[in-house]
Amino acid sequence: MVQTVKALLVGAVGGGIFFLADLPLAWMLGSMFVVTIASLRGYDLSVNGTLRKVMTAILGVMLGSGFSTDTWAAMGRWSGGLVLLILSVILSMLIVYFFYRKVGKFDPITAFFSSAPGGLNVMYEVGEAKGGNGPTIALIHASRILILVMSVPLIFRYGVGFTGNLQAVPLFGSIHDLVGDGWLLLAALLGYGIGYLCRLPAYHLMGPLLATAIVQMAGITDVAPPMILVYAAQLVIGTAIGARFLGTRLYEVRNVIGLSFISTTVMVLIAALFAFLFAETIGVSMAGIILALSPGGLAEMPLVALALGIDVAFVATMQVVRISLVIAFVPTVFSAIERIRLKQTK
After folding, report:
1. Check: CATH 3.40.50 for 2-345?
2. Residue 254: its pLDDT value, please?
3. C-alpha–C-alpha distance, residues 123 and 263, integer Å
Protein backbone atom coordinates (compact mmCIF):
# COMPACT_ATOMS: atom_id res chain seq x y z
CA MET A 1 0.00 0.00 0.00
CA VAL A 2 2.90 2.36 0.76
CA GLN A 3 4.23 1.75 -2.76
CA THR A 4 0.83 2.55 -4.24
CA VAL A 5 0.45 5.79 -2.24
CA LYS A 6 3.95 6.87 -3.29
CA ALA A 7 3.22 6.10 -6.94
CA LEU A 8 -0.12 7.96 -6.87
CA LEU A 9 1.47 11.01 -5.26
CA VAL A 10 4.05 11.11 -8.04
CA GLY A 11 1.31 10.62 -10.62
CA ALA A 12 -0.82 13.34 -9.02
CA VAL A 13 1.96 15.86 -9.61
CA GLY A 14 1.80 15.22 -13.34
CA GLY A 15 -1.99 15.06 -13.34
CA GLY A 16 -2.23 18.36 -11.48
CA ILE A 17 0.14 20.09 -13.91
CA PHE A 18 -1.76 18.79 -16.94
CA PHE A 19 -5.08 19.74 -15.31
CA LEU A 20 -3.93 23.31 -14.69
CA ALA A 21 -2.70 23.45 -18.28
CA ASP A 22 -6.23 22.42 -19.40
CA LEU A 23 -4.96 19.42 -21.35
CA PRO A 24 -7.37 16.61 -22.33
CA LEU A 25 -7.52 13.57 -20.01
CA ALA A 26 -5.25 15.54 -17.69
CA TRP A 27 -5.19 13.18 -14.73
CA MET A 28 -4.44 10.12 -16.85
CA LEU A 29 -1.99 11.69 -19.32
CA GLY A 30 -0.18 13.73 -16.67
CA SER A 31 0.27 10.85 -14.26
CA MET A 32 1.31 8.54 -17.10
CA PHE A 33 3.90 11.01 -18.35
CA VAL A 34 5.55 11.69 -14.99
CA VAL A 35 5.46 8.08 -13.74
CA THR A 36 6.87 6.77 -17.03
CA ILE A 37 9.84 9.12 -16.71
CA ALA A 38 10.31 8.15 -13.06
CA SER A 39 10.13 4.43 -13.91
CA LEU A 40 12.66 4.75 -16.73
CA ARG A 41 14.97 6.50 -14.28
CA GLY A 42 14.71 3.53 -11.92
CA TYR A 43 12.26 4.75 -9.27
CA ASP A 44 10.36 1.82 -7.75
CA LEU A 45 6.70 2.72 -8.35
CA SER A 46 3.74 0.36 -8.55
CA VAL A 47 -0.04 0.35 -8.16
CA ASN A 48 -2.01 -2.23 -6.18
CA GLY A 49 -3.76 -4.60 -8.59
CA THR A 50 -7.05 -4.66 -6.70
CA LEU A 51 -7.23 -0.86 -6.60
CA ARG A 52 -6.63 -0.68 -10.32
CA LYS A 53 -9.44 -3.16 -10.99
CA VAL A 54 -11.86 -1.16 -8.84
CA MET A 55 -10.96 2.09 -10.59
CA THR A 56 -11.19 0.40 -13.98
CA ALA A 57 -14.70 -0.73 -13.03
CA ILE A 58 -15.59 2.92 -12.35
CA LEU A 59 -14.34 3.81 -15.82
CA GLY A 60 -16.45 0.95 -17.17
CA VAL A 61 -19.53 2.52 -15.59
CA MET A 62 -18.55 5.92 -16.99
CA LEU A 63 -18.14 4.48 -20.49
CA GLY A 64 -21.38 2.53 -20.18
CA SER A 65 -23.16 5.78 -19.32
CA GLY A 66 -22.26 6.97 -22.83
CA PHE A 67 -24.95 4.61 -24.17
CA SER A 68 -28.59 5.72 -24.37
CA THR A 69 -32.01 4.63 -25.60
CA ASP A 70 -30.97 5.94 -29.04
CA THR A 71 -28.11 3.43 -29.19
CA TRP A 72 -30.49 0.57 -30.07
CA ALA A 73 -31.38 2.24 -33.38
CA ALA A 74 -27.75 3.11 -34.10
CA MET A 75 -26.55 -0.47 -33.62
CA GLY A 76 -28.24 -1.50 -36.84
CA ARG A 77 -25.84 0.75 -38.74
CA TRP A 78 -22.74 -0.54 -36.96
CA SER A 79 -22.42 -3.84 -38.82
CA GLY A 80 -20.31 -2.02 -41.39
CA GLY A 81 -18.07 -0.83 -38.58
CA LEU A 82 -17.60 -4.43 -37.46
CA VAL A 83 -16.47 -5.41 -40.96
CA LEU A 84 -14.01 -2.52 -41.01
CA LEU A 85 -12.73 -3.57 -37.59
CA ILE A 86 -12.03 -7.13 -38.70
CA LEU A 87 -10.34 -5.95 -41.91
CA SER A 88 -8.21 -3.41 -40.04
CA VAL A 89 -7.07 -6.03 -37.50
CA ILE A 90 -6.04 -8.47 -40.25
CA LEU A 91 -4.36 -5.83 -42.42
CA SER A 92 -2.57 -4.24 -39.48
CA MET A 93 -1.22 -7.57 -38.26
CA LEU A 94 0.04 -8.58 -41.70
CA ILE A 95 1.86 -5.31 -42.36
CA VAL A 96 3.26 -4.95 -38.84
CA TYR A 97 4.35 -8.62 -38.70
CA PHE A 98 6.50 -8.24 -41.83
CA PHE A 99 7.78 -4.91 -40.54
CA TYR A 100 9.00 -6.52 -37.33
CA ARG A 101 10.52 -9.43 -39.26
CA LYS A 102 12.30 -7.43 -41.96
CA VAL A 103 13.15 -4.19 -40.18
CA GLY A 104 13.09 -5.16 -36.50
CA LYS A 105 14.75 -8.53 -37.15
CA PHE A 106 12.40 -10.20 -34.66
CA ASP A 107 12.05 -13.96 -34.66
CA PRO A 108 8.71 -15.19 -36.13
CA ILE A 109 7.04 -15.87 -32.77
CA THR A 110 8.00 -12.51 -31.24
CA ALA A 111 6.96 -10.69 -34.42
CA PHE A 112 3.59 -12.46 -34.53
CA PHE A 113 2.54 -11.71 -30.98
CA SER A 114 4.02 -8.20 -31.08
CA SER A 115 1.95 -7.39 -34.18
CA ALA A 116 -1.40 -8.14 -32.50
CA PRO A 117 -3.36 -4.88 -32.09
CA GLY A 118 -4.26 -5.42 -28.45
CA GLY A 119 -4.26 -7.91 -25.59
CA LEU A 120 -1.01 -6.95 -23.84
CA ASN A 121 -1.16 -9.50 -21.02
CA VAL A 122 -2.41 -12.40 -23.13
CA MET A 123 0.04 -11.73 -26.01
CA TYR A 124 2.92 -11.54 -23.54
CA GLU A 125 2.01 -14.73 -21.68
CA VAL A 126 1.17 -16.85 -24.73
CA GLY A 127 4.01 -15.44 -26.84
CA GLU A 128 6.60 -16.17 -24.16
CA ALA A 129 5.17 -19.65 -23.56
CA LYS A 130 5.46 -20.38 -27.29
CA GLY A 131 9.15 -19.39 -27.28
CA GLY A 132 9.01 -15.69 -28.13
CA ASN A 133 10.90 -12.88 -26.44
CA GLY A 134 8.50 -12.03 -23.60
CA PRO A 135 10.07 -8.70 -22.50
CA THR A 136 10.13 -7.43 -26.10
CA ILE A 137 6.48 -8.41 -26.67
CA ALA A 138 5.42 -6.70 -23.43
CA LEU A 139 7.41 -3.56 -24.20
CA ILE A 140 6.03 -3.31 -27.74
CA HIS A 141 2.45 -3.44 -26.46
CA ALA A 142 3.02 -1.18 -23.45
CA SER A 143 4.72 1.47 -25.58
CA ARG A 144 1.94 1.19 -28.22
CA ILE A 145 -0.66 2.09 -25.61
CA LEU A 146 1.54 4.84 -24.18
CA ILE A 147 2.15 6.38 -27.61
CA LEU A 148 -1.52 6.30 -28.60
CA VAL A 149 -2.92 7.60 -25.34
CA MET A 150 -0.34 10.37 -25.10
CA SER A 151 -0.72 11.55 -28.70
CA VAL A 152 -4.31 10.98 -29.87
CA PRO A 153 -6.10 13.29 -27.37
CA LEU A 154 -3.61 16.10 -28.04
CA ILE A 155 -3.89 15.71 -31.82
CA PHE A 156 -7.68 15.71 -31.70
CA ARG A 157 -7.83 18.66 -29.29
CA TYR A 158 -5.21 20.92 -30.86
CA GLY A 159 -4.83 19.55 -34.37
CA VAL A 160 -8.48 18.98 -35.21
CA GLY A 161 -10.21 21.19 -32.68
CA PHE A 162 -12.39 18.76 -30.70
CA THR A 163 -13.25 19.98 -27.22
CA GLY A 164 -14.20 17.87 -24.23
CA ASN A 165 -17.66 17.38 -22.78
CA LEU A 166 -16.82 15.97 -19.36
CA GLN A 167 -17.24 19.39 -17.81
CA ALA A 168 -21.01 18.88 -18.13
CA VAL A 169 -20.85 16.10 -15.54
CA PRO A 170 -21.00 17.39 -11.93
CA LEU A 171 -17.75 16.99 -9.99
CA PHE A 172 -19.46 15.48 -6.94
CA GLY A 173 -22.75 14.40 -8.49
CA SER A 174 -26.17 15.70 -7.43
CA ILE A 175 -28.57 14.86 -4.63
CA HIS A 176 -31.22 14.44 -7.33
CA ASP A 177 -29.20 11.62 -8.91
CA LEU A 178 -29.17 9.32 -5.86
CA VAL A 179 -31.60 6.83 -7.41
CA GLY A 180 -29.67 6.87 -10.67
CA ASP A 181 -26.41 6.47 -8.79
CA GLY A 182 -27.91 3.48 -7.02
CA TRP A 183 -28.65 1.86 -10.37
CA LEU A 184 -25.09 2.55 -11.52
CA LEU A 185 -23.69 0.99 -8.35
CA LEU A 186 -25.88 -2.07 -8.82
CA ALA A 187 -24.80 -2.33 -12.47
CA ALA A 188 -21.15 -2.04 -11.47
CA LEU A 189 -21.39 -4.79 -8.84
CA LEU A 190 -23.47 -7.17 -10.94
CA GLY A 191 -21.39 -6.49 -14.04
CA TYR A 192 -18.15 -7.08 -12.16
CA GLY A 193 -19.39 -10.38 -10.71
CA ILE A 194 -21.01 -11.68 -13.91
CA GLY A 195 -17.98 -10.62 -15.96
CA TYR A 196 -15.74 -12.59 -13.61
CA LEU A 197 -17.97 -15.68 -13.68
CA CYS A 198 -18.26 -15.54 -17.48
CA ARG A 199 -14.49 -15.03 -17.79
CA LEU A 200 -14.84 -11.97 -19.97
CA PRO A 201 -11.53 -10.44 -21.10
CA ALA A 202 -10.76 -7.48 -18.81
CA TYR A 203 -13.90 -8.46 -16.85
CA HIS A 204 -13.38 -5.64 -14.34
CA LEU A 205 -13.94 -3.16 -17.20
CA MET A 206 -16.21 -5.02 -19.61
CA GLY A 207 -18.65 -6.34 -17.00
CA PRO A 208 -19.57 -2.94 -15.49
CA LEU A 209 -19.48 -1.34 -18.96
CA LEU A 210 -21.95 -3.80 -20.46
CA ALA A 211 -24.22 -3.82 -17.40
CA THR A 212 -24.34 -0.02 -17.30
CA ALA A 213 -24.95 0.15 -21.05
CA ILE A 214 -27.96 -2.16 -20.65
CA VAL A 215 -29.38 -0.01 -17.83
CA GLN A 216 -28.89 3.15 -19.89
CA MET A 217 -30.30 1.72 -23.12
CA ALA A 218 -33.34 0.40 -21.23
CA GLY A 219 -34.06 3.96 -20.10
CA ILE A 220 -33.84 3.07 -16.40
CA THR A 221 -31.39 5.89 -15.73
CA ASP A 222 -29.36 8.41 -17.70
CA VAL A 223 -26.92 9.69 -15.05
CA ALA A 224 -23.13 9.40 -15.09
CA PRO A 225 -20.74 8.81 -12.16
CA PRO A 226 -19.47 11.92 -10.34
CA MET A 227 -16.38 13.31 -12.06
CA ILE A 228 -14.34 13.15 -8.86
CA LEU A 229 -14.46 9.34 -9.13
CA VAL A 230 -13.57 9.45 -12.82
CA TYR A 231 -10.58 11.72 -12.13
CA ALA A 232 -9.42 9.33 -9.42
CA ALA A 233 -9.76 6.39 -11.83
CA GLN A 234 -7.79 8.27 -14.48
CA LEU A 235 -5.02 8.93 -11.95
CA VAL A 236 -4.78 5.27 -10.92
CA ILE A 237 -4.81 3.93 -14.49
CA GLY A 238 -2.36 6.53 -15.81
CA THR A 239 0.01 5.80 -12.93
CA ALA A 240 -0.29 2.04 -13.52
CA ILE A 241 0.52 2.39 -17.23
CA GLY A 242 3.60 4.47 -16.46
CA ALA A 243 4.73 1.98 -13.81
CA ARG A 244 4.84 -0.78 -16.46
CA PHE A 245 8.19 0.62 -17.57
CA LEU A 246 9.82 -0.06 -14.21
CA GLY A 247 13.05 -1.98 -14.64
CA THR A 248 13.69 -0.78 -18.16
CA ARG A 249 16.26 1.78 -19.26
CA LEU A 250 15.63 4.13 -22.15
CA TYR A 251 19.03 3.50 -23.73
CA GLU A 252 18.33 -0.26 -23.61
CA VAL A 253 14.89 -0.14 -25.19
CA ARG A 254 14.93 2.89 -27.48
CA ASN A 255 15.17 0.62 -30.55
CA VAL A 256 12.08 -1.36 -29.50
CA ILE A 257 10.15 1.82 -28.65
CA GLY A 258 11.14 3.30 -32.02
CA LEU A 259 9.83 0.22 -33.81
CA SER A 260 6.63 0.39 -31.77
CA PHE A 261 6.19 4.05 -32.70
CA ILE A 262 6.43 3.25 -36.42
CA SER A 263 4.11 0.22 -36.21
CA THR A 264 1.58 2.17 -34.14
CA THR A 265 1.63 4.97 -36.72
CA VAL A 266 0.95 2.41 -39.46
CA MET A 267 -2.04 1.03 -37.55
CA VAL A 268 -3.50 4.49 -36.99
CA LEU A 269 -2.98 5.41 -40.67
CA ILE A 270 -4.92 2.28 -41.66
CA ALA A 271 -7.72 3.36 -39.30
CA ALA A 272 -7.64 6.88 -40.78
CA LEU A 273 -7.79 5.51 -44.34
CA PHE A 274 -10.79 3.35 -43.53
CA ALA A 275 -12.44 6.30 -41.81
CA PHE A 276 -11.89 8.52 -44.85
CA LEU A 277 -13.29 5.92 -47.23
CA PHE A 278 -16.25 4.56 -45.27
CA ALA A 279 -17.37 7.11 -42.63
CA GLU A 280 -20.31 8.31 -44.72
CA THR A 281 -21.40 4.76 -45.52
CA ILE A 282 -21.43 3.66 -41.87
CA GLY A 283 -22.95 6.89 -40.59
CA VAL A 284 -20.27 7.50 -37.95
CA SER A 285 -17.86 10.44 -37.88
CA MET A 286 -14.32 9.99 -39.22
CA ALA A 287 -12.99 10.76 -35.75
CA GLY A 288 -15.23 8.08 -34.25
CA ILE A 289 -14.01 5.42 -36.69
CA ILE A 290 -10.36 6.36 -36.10
CA LEU A 291 -10.79 5.99 -32.33
CA ALA A 292 -12.79 2.78 -32.78
CA LEU A 293 -10.13 1.14 -34.96
CA SER A 294 -7.05 2.52 -33.18
CA PRO A 295 -5.30 -0.22 -31.17
CA GLY A 296 -5.18 1.59 -27.87
CA GLY A 297 -6.16 0.14 -24.51
CA LEU A 298 -9.66 -1.21 -23.95
CA ALA A 299 -10.30 1.50 -21.37
CA GLU A 300 -8.18 4.25 -22.86
CA MET A 301 -9.58 4.77 -26.38
CA PRO A 302 -13.24 4.90 -25.26
CA LEU A 303 -12.16 7.27 -22.50
CA VAL A 304 -10.55 9.52 -25.10
CA ALA A 305 -13.83 9.41 -27.05
CA LEU A 306 -15.74 10.29 -23.90
CA ALA A 307 -13.43 13.16 -23.03
CA LEU A 308 -13.69 14.63 -26.53
CA GLY A 309 -17.38 13.85 -27.08
CA ILE A 310 -16.81 11.57 -30.09
CA ASP A 311 -19.28 8.68 -30.71
CA VAL A 312 -18.69 7.14 -27.28
CA ALA A 313 -21.04 4.16 -27.61
CA PHE A 314 -19.68 3.22 -31.04
CA VAL A 315 -16.04 3.51 -29.96
CA ALA A 316 -16.62 1.55 -26.74
CA THR A 317 -18.50 -1.21 -28.58
CA MET A 318 -15.86 -1.58 -31.30
CA GLN A 319 -13.01 -1.60 -28.78
CA VAL A 320 -14.71 -4.34 -26.76
CA VAL A 321 -15.18 -6.39 -29.95
CA ARG A 322 -11.57 -5.70 -31.04
CA ILE A 323 -9.97 -6.92 -27.84
CA SER A 324 -12.29 -9.93 -27.70
CA LEU A 325 -11.37 -10.93 -31.27
CA VAL A 326 -7.65 -10.48 -30.66
CA ILE A 327 -7.63 -12.47 -27.44
CA ALA A 328 -9.85 -15.23 -28.85
CA PHE A 329 -8.31 -15.69 -32.28
CA VAL A 330 -4.65 -14.60 -32.32
CA PRO A 331 -3.38 -17.48 -30.11
CA THR A 332 -5.69 -19.89 -31.98
CA VAL A 333 -4.43 -18.76 -35.38
CA PHE A 334 -0.83 -19.12 -34.21
CA SER A 335 -1.50 -22.67 -33.00
CA ALA A 336 -3.11 -23.54 -36.35
CA ILE A 337 -0.13 -22.12 -38.27
CA GLU A 338 2.23 -24.03 -35.99
CA ARG A 339 0.40 -27.33 -36.65
CA ILE A 340 0.51 -26.76 -40.41
CA ARG A 341 4.23 -25.98 -40.28
CA LEU A 342 4.96 -29.09 -38.25
CA LYS A 343 3.03 -31.28 -40.73
CA GLN A 344 4.99 -29.80 -43.64
CA THR A 345 8.32 -30.53 -41.97
CA LYS A 346 7.48 -34.20 -41.41
Report:
1. no
2. 80
3. 16
